[in-house]
Fold this sequence. Notes:
CATH architecture of the largest domain: 3-Layer(aba) Sandwich
Structural class: alpha/beta
Radius of gyration: 23 Å
InterPro entries: Glyco_trans_1
Pfam family, one: Glycos_transf_1
Protein name: Glycosyltransferase involved in cell wall biosynthesis
Amino acid sequence: MSLIVWVTPVSKKSAIAQFSKMIVDELGSRNQDVVVVSSEAGAIKESLFSDCVEYTDINAIRALWDDGAKFLYNVGNNYDYHVGVLEICNKFPGVGIFHDVYLYDLFYGWISSLSLDAHDEFLSILYGELVPLDLRSVKDVLAHRVENFPMLEWVAPKFSSIITHSRFAADRMRRLVLGPVSSVPLAYKAPIQVDVPDVGQKSCIHDRMIVSTFGDANSNKRIESVIRGIASSGVLKERIRYNVVGSISEAYKKKITDLASALGVDLNVVGRVSSESYAQHMNATAVVCCLRYPPTESASATLIESLLSGKLTLVTDVGCYSDVPDDLVVKIPQDDEIRGLAYGMDLALQNFEFAEATGRRARSWAEQNYSVDAYVDGVEAHLDIDAEVYGNRVIWQRTRDLLNTIYVDERDEQSLSLLVENVRRFEILGAPSSIGVV
């Protein structure tokens, strides 16, 4: 049995907190001793955990470290949810569980909190003096940042090893940490199953097949491309209703509504809904468009929901979406997505039996691949590291932090060796928590 410190957001509103609750409960059922540390800023009003330690309680956390606890940090692209990770991971090195691979927002929140006028200088040091920082002529700011400064290179080296949820960016992570990088598919449970009263109307309204996009609506989900894909075919325009279910800004709602109106597409912007209503919309959908470009996350909850719900799912053939077997989804090439989307929707419209059979196979695969048991198996395997090897990785981590702090070139072997030896002396003196960037 191991003593595990699980650092995570804890609020009910956080998807990562919901994920953590499943994992912590399963670890507890396996007789693992787990202490939850909240990584959130400010007071927690509605926590999923009956008992947790605040990240600001350094004495309690240090006591856990001194007791030999293994620290696991949930890393996501939201500063308010993950500020505690940044505050303590250098003092208490451990495993990073990466839910996102684009982490600029986390970085921006951090550097803004310090009131430092060092944003551009920091990025130039990390990505080179020629990194394009001027956004005035950039059409897609998110795509620009993902390509040029995703900040994975800033966050990943803070951890001794990494668990990620797909193969996406795993090789990139391996160049940033000395320890192992394990790809463990995200654990997830299907949304609430709600029966549709009239089976004859399921996935169809007034003879129109329902196609849906779920989650926060933005251009990264390629909603405009779905509209254009429907508009590219007279049959699709006549036979499809397109639902957008999730939070949406008024400006973006107007943009896609105007586009759909101009192209003659039946668009229904549902907006944010309750969990039960969300499940009803999922159950009543024939085809789920789960598209991302550029990809920013290591796993997609919407993708897993769609597969677990047995839906024919259209995905962009990039990032974590590429991990799903080709025969369980329809993969859309990013460089020809409008034509690919039209093909996928027409396939479901013309061959509904194929769509349902594909959905059944996808559900069976997803139930095994995204199970809580399988995830915890992966976590335990990752933690099964020889103590001496783990200690060396911790030392390597702290050395990297020192190098970053004093701007010593890591290729300077003499300086590197000297710093490693100094860190080892600190270890012997029993002052490990004094090492690192605060």
